[in-house]
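hiii so um. not sure if this is the right channel but i have a protein structure encoded as tokens and i wanna go backwards to a sequence. like what aa goes where. can anyone help
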């Protein structure tokens, strides 16, 4: 059954006139008659009694209309809601990132832009010393950050881009000569920390509690410079470490540490259709 047949039937049922129904539907009167005849064939009964003077619904036509109107209203309402939602995925989506963009993220951006060509994505690098500030201030719509995130005012998505942590140390560091390190190796060595307002639970993860805090920095280049100078060590997810190679630092694999993972964050009171659509693209 064609939706146009339903529309034709309802228009004639409302107008009780084929000419006015045709005007309403912006088609010819012959096309309306064709739609009604086709629907009557599908139903197996006449829906209108027609004469040169008048058009009236048959008893079956009356009952058919009564049952059809609510269903048709729900259908058209769903279509309009979907159209409104699609129109909402336009404008600009401002995305922050820390350290670099993985292939997973660039692929998600490509999928999002292909599906929503009216929405422009703008990328901004975020200072690790303030991973949540640009979202909270409204400067950015969302930021890709490392887990864990325990901020009640922020929404987090399902973790993605899981990867092992690696230890980044100066070539002169005692752990640089190890083939692999575990939590017991890390416990006595200073960790490069992030300056305020980055929360300590966030930048210390997953360092052992016994590891002392070394210098506090604001950016990844500052952190790498402190590492190279022998001021402390840093745990990074393996893909981020690979994006920033240096000849004066050594990357050591780890064992018995949880995996790193990423999440999208946005303000709980500022959720939009664009954000949810981008989160869906990332989750694939």
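sure thing!! here u go:
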């Amino acid at each position: 059954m064609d939706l146009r047949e339903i529309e034709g039937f309802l228009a004639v049922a409302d107008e009780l006139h084929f000419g006015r129904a045709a005007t309403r539907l912006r088609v010819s009167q012959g096309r309306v008659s064709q739609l009604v005849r086709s629907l009557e064939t599908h139903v197996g009964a006449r829906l209108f009694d027609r004469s040169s003077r008048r058009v009236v619904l048959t008893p079956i036509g009356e009952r058919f209309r009564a049952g059809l109107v609510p269903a048709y209203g729900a259908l058209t309402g769903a279509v309009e809601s979907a159209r409104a939602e699609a129109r909402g995925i336009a404008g600009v989506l401002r995305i922050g990132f820390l350290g670099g963009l993985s292939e997973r993220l660039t692929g998600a951006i490509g999928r999002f832009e292909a599906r929503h060509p009216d929405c422009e994505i703008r990328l901004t690098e975020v200072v690790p010393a303030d991973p949540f500030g640009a979202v909270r201030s409204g400067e950015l719509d969302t930021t890709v950050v490392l887990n864990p995130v325990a901020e009640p005012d922020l929404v987090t998505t399902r973790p993605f881009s899981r990867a092992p942590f690696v230890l980044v140390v100066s070539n002169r560091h005692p752990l640089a000569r190890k083939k692999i390190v575990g939590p017991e190796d890390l416990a006595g060595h200073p960790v490069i920390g992030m300056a305020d307002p980055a929360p300590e639970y966030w930048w210390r993860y997953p360092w052992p509690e016994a590891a002392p805090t070394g210098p506090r920095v604001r950016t990844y280049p500052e952190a790498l410079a402190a590492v190279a100078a022998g001021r402390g060590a840093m745990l990074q997810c393996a893909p981020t470490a690979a994006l920033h190679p240096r000849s004066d630092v050594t990357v050591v694999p780890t064992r018995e540490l949880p995996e790193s993972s990423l999440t999208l964050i946005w303000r709980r009171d500022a959720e939009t259709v664009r954000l949810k659509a981008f989160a869906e693209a990332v989750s694939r």
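oh and The radius of gyration is 31 Å.
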